Amino acid sequence: MTGKRNAMEVHDLTVAYDRKPVLWDLDFTIPEGLLVGIVGPNGAGKSTLIKAALGMIPLASGWVKFFDKPVEDVRTEIGYVPQRESVDWDFPTNALDVVMMGLYGKLGWMRRPGKTERERAMTCLEHVGMADYAKRQISQLSGGQQQRVFLARALAQEANIYLMDEPMAGVDAATERAVVNLLSELREQNKTILVVHHDLQTVSDYFDWVVLLNMRQIAVGPTKEVFHDENLRKTYGGRLTIISKIADAVARDAPQGLR
Amino acid sequence: MSDSMIIILTGAFVAGSCALLGSFLVLRKLSMLGDAISHAVLPGIVIAFLVTSSRNSLPMFVGAALVGVLTAFLVQFLSHRGVQGDAAIGVTFTTLFAIGVILVSHYGSAVDLDLECVLYGEIAYAPFDVIFIGDQSIGARALWVNGGLFLLNLAFIFVFYKQLKLSAFDPELAAAVGIPVTAFHYMLMGLVSVTTVGSFESVGAILVVAMIIVPAATAYLLSENLARMIGLAVLLGAISSVLGYEIASHLDCSIAGAMASVAGLLFSLALLFSPRQGIVAKAMSRRGLRRQVAEEDVLLWAARQRELISAEGFTMHELRDTHPDEIDRLARALSRLIHRGLLAADRDGFELTTSGREEGVELLRRHRLYESFLGDKLGYDTDHLHDPADRVEHYISPDDTTEIERVTEYPDRDPQGKPIPPSQKEKEKEKEREKESS
C-alpha cells in the first residue's frame, strides 16, 4: 500500500451558511482507492461538506485539496453526483442527453458534444443497465432509473474521485445492488469514492472507511476501527447542544460571521 | 418594404427574442423575474435619457442592462436574507418601477418619454421612425433594433447552449464542472433587460412579459427536447405576431394586444391538446382505462362463471342479477367486447370466443396470484383478499405477474383453495412436451 496519493485532504475546514456555521474545524485525509461513507444525522452537514469541497459554497476558513491540488486545477478529475431531488425531472430531455451532460466539463468552453460523446454516454448507460431507456423522456423514468442515469453521468465524467450525495436514498433494492456493484467496480480501478449514506445497517458492508460527522468531525478512518457504538453515540447522541448554541450565537452576534 | 410587413417583422423579432430568453426563464422557474426586470428597467432608461439627453438607443440599453442586473441581484440578495422569493421579486420591481415613474413625472416635459408608450407600446408607429445614414434612409429603426437584438440573443444561446442547458437542468453539476453559473445568470438577465428596452416601443412593458413567458410555456408543454422547445417557442412567437397583426387590422384594435392574445390562445390550445400532458389526452386515457376496467370485469366474471357452473354462455339477465348496480357500465362493455372479437352474441345470450376465454383465464390467474401474494406473503386474512385484488388486478403488468408468481413460489391454488390456471406459456410448453413424447 505504499506510494498511494492522498485523494482528498481537508484542512481546518469551517463552513457557514448565511453566517451560521454548519461545519466546524474538519481536518482529515482520505487515501486514494477507497470507498468511503459519509455518515451522520440529518443536518449534520454531509451534503455541505461535499459542496464546500467542490467550491460550490464559500469556505469560512481552511482549505480542501484533491490529489494535492486545489479544486480549480483538478475539476476534470472529480465526478459529482448531486441528490436526485436537486434537479427538475420534467426538463425536456432524455436519458442519453443527461449522461452526455457529464462530458460537458471535459469538452471545455466551445466544443460541442458529438458522435464520440454520444457513444461514450451510451456505453455508460449500458454499464448501469439503462441502455434500453436511452431515448426515454426523463420524467417517465422511475426514481431508481433516474438515479442510475445520474450514476451513468458520473461514469461518463471518467473521474479519479467521485463525490456522491445519497445515491441510495429512496431507490429500490435492484438499484441499490446496481449502485453497490458499480462502486466496488470503480474502486477496483483505483478510484476513490465518497458517498453520503444514511442507512447505518449497511455501512460496514459497503464502505472501507467512514467519515462520522455531526457539524464537527467525530471520527474518520477504517470502518472496522471507527464505526463502533461509542462513536455512533457521539454522532447521533444529543450532546451537540453546546456547539449549536454557539453557532446560533455566531449567526446572531458576529457582524461578519466567521469570515 | 410595406408598412404592414415592417410591423409584422418587428413583432416577430420581438417575439423571437423574448421566446429565446423566455425558454430558459421558464425552465429555471424564473418567469416572474422576467416580469420584474421588464418593469424595473424604467428608471434605467430615464436616467440614461437624462444623462445623455437623447433618445439614442445605446445609452438606454446600457442603463436598462445595469438596472436589470441590479434587479436580479437585489432579488437574490433579499431572498438570501430570508425574504420569500416571490415577495423579494415584488418588492424589488415595484420599488424600482415607482422610482422610474417619479423620475418621468418630475422631469415631465424635459423627458420626451411617454409613459403610456413605455407601458403599452405602439407597434403601429414602427414604420414611421426611420434611420438615416447621411440622407439615405435605411429602413425602420424598430426593425433594425429588434432584428439586431434577435441576432444577439440567438448568438448568445447558440454559442453558450451547452453551458446554459446544464445550468438550467442541474446548476450544482454545472458549478462542479466549473461553469460560472452566477455569471451566466446575470448575463441572461442583462439580455432580458436589453431585449425589453428594444421591445418597449413596439409592444410595451406589459406585453413584453407575455412574449417572454407565454410562447416558451406553450413550447414546454409540447416538447421533449430542449433545442426543439426553443425552436418551437420562437415559431409560436412568430405565429402570434403574424396572426395578431391580421386580427388587429380586421378588428381595428391594439396590434400588440392582439399579438399577445394570440399567444395566450395558442397556449390554451396546447394545454387542451398536448399529446402528453394535455387535458384532452388525459381525459381520453382516463376514459380508455375506465372502459378497459369494465371489459376486464366482464371477461373475468364470465371466466369465473364457466369454472363455477361450467356454463358456456351467459345472458344479460344473469349479468344484471349478479351486478345490479353496475349493469350500465358492464352492458356497454359487452358491445365493445363483441367488436374486439372476444365475445359472441346469439339469440340466447353471450358466449366467450376462444381468445376471450384465454384473456378471461389470464385475468383469473392474475387475480388469484395476487390473492396468494396478499394472503401468503403479506398475511391478509382469507376473507380480506377478494376486494383488494379486485381493485388492483387491472393494473398488474405481465412482468409484475411473473414477479408475483416467483415470490409466491408458483402456487397451484389461491388461499381460498381455488385453482390458479397455468399461464399461456406453460400451456404451450406442455403441448411441446406432449408432442415430443408421442
Q: Strand sequence of the main sheet of chain B, in spatial order?
A: 3-5-4
Alpha-carbon distance between the two ends of chain A: 39 Å
Outline the low-pLDDT stretches of chain B: none
Biggest sheet architecture of chain A:
6 strands, mixed
List keywords for this structure.
heterodimer; A: 259 residues; four-stranded antiparallel sheet; B: 438 residues; Arc Repressor Mutant, subunit A; 3 domains; two-stranded antiparallel sheet; 19 helices; 5 strands; 74% helix; 4% strand
Structure description:
The complex is a heterodimer of chains A (259) and B (438). Chain A is 35% helix and 27% strand. The mean pLDDT of chain A is 87. Chain A contains ten helices and eleven strands. Chain A is α/β, with parallel strands linked by helices. Chain A has helices spanning 46-53, 95-101, 104-107, 115-127, 143-156, 173-188, 203-206, 223-226, 229-236, 241-253, and strands at 6-17, 20-31, 35-39, 61-66, 69-70, 78-81, 161-165, 192-197, 209-214, 216-222, 255-258. Chain A is globular and about 55 Å long. In chain B, β4 (343-345) and β5 (350-352) form a beta hairpin. Chain B has helices at 3-27, 31-40, 42-52, 57-80, 85-107, 115-120, 141-159, 161-169, 171-176, 181-222, 226-251, 255-273, 279-309, 316-322, 327-339, 354-377, 386-392, 398-407, 424-437, and strands at residues 130-133, 136-140, 313-314, 343-345, 350-352. Chain B has a three-stranded antiparallel beta sheet. A two-stranded antiparallel sheet of chain B has the order 1-2. In chain B, α1 (3-27) packs parallel to α7, α2 crosses α4 (57-80) and α2 (31-40) packs across α10. Chain B has three domains: 3-277, Orthogonal Bundle (ABC transporter involved in vitamin B12 uptake, BtuC); 282-352, Arc Repressor Mutant, subunit A, CATH 1.10.10; 357-437, Arc Repressor Mutant, subunit A (Orthogonal Bundle), CATH 1.10.10. The interface between A and B is medium-sized, with 31 and 28 residues.
